């Protein structure tokens, strides 16, 4: 186990959050393996030079995110590491989650048909006013909400998309039903913002917590824009990985 316990008390970041991020980084690196027991609060408090209440708050945050679990009378154990989410030409939530031995699922939260405004027309390469399908989805791994997303598709290309997604819980499968066998990522733009009220409820986050925002465009295999998505990611549960091949 790593013993690095440097805290920057002048950084403007709460000490408990620094402890939380340190422990999470150690879990990701393998210093604490899945199923292993975390040191007692008293030992962690001594390591970081803080009181047990501060350590307890960091542990509570990691427990809320599904990274740790508390077993009454036994201690605190590593439940799972934050999901590693590669960003590249082929980005598939279900494949990424399954590849890390977790169970992926998708939930349809809402949908509507709307006309393309200037932004959507540009992203999808369609004339202003083109009818689009907007879908609101929640992507889940092992029952833990990870991503709340809004996606737009040209309605004429995927007229039954809403029903197909509700049936399969998979964007890839729903597109295949529309005759679109494959697609690739054109670009992903990543920013950050504070979670909004509706997303906080869907993702199980407290208001004021940060989310990563991924704006992406997918192309069909002829190079035509197929999907524009604005996804809000629970920052404490997922690490975005961008390789040099992107």
From TrEMBL:
Pfam families associated with the record: GntR, UTRA
PROSITE patterns xrefs: HTH_GNTR
Keyword DNA-binding annotated: yes
SUPFAM superfamilies documented for this protein: Chorismate lyase-like, Winged helix' DNA-binding domain
Any Gene Ontology biological process: negative regulation of DNA-templated transcription
Keyword Acyltransferase: no
Residue ranges annotated for the HTH gntR-type domain, each copy included: 13-81
Keywords: DNA-binding, Transcription, Transcription regulation
GO MF term (any one): DNA-binding transcription factor activity
Protein name stated in the entry: Putative transcriptional regulator PhnF
Source species: Roseibium aggregatum
């Amino acid at each position: 186990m790593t013993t690095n316990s440097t805290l920057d008390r002048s950084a403007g970041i709460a000490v408990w959050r620094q402890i939380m991020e340190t422990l999470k980084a150690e879990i990701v690196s393998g210093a604490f393996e899945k199923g292993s027991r975390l040191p007692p609060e008293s030992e962690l408090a001594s390591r970081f030079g803080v009181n047990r209440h501060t350590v307890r708050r960091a542990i509570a945050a990691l427990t809320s995110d599904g990274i740790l679990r508390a077993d009454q009378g036994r201690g605190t154990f590593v439940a799972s590491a934050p999901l590693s989410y590669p960003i590249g030409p082929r980005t598939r939530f279900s494949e990424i989650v399954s590849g890390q031995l977790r169970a992926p699922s998708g939930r349809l939260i809402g949908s509507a048909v709307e006309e393309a405004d200037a932004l959507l027309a540009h992203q999808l390469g369609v004339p202003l006013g083109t009818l689009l399908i907007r879908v609101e989805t929640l992507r889940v791994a092992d029952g833990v909400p990870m991503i709340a997303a809004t996606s737009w598709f040209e309605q004429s290309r995927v007229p039954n998309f809403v029903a197909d997604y509700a049936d399969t819980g998979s964007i890839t499968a729903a597109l295949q039903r529309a005759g679109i066998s494959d697609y690739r990522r054109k670009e992903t733009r990543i920013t950050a913002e504070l979670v909004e009220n509706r997303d906080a409820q869907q993702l199980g986050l407290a208001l004021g917590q940060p989310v990563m925002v991924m704006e992406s465009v997918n192309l069909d295999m002829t190079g035509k824009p197929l999907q524009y998505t604005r996804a809000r990611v629970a920052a404490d549960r997922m690490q975005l990985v961008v390789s040099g091949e992107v």
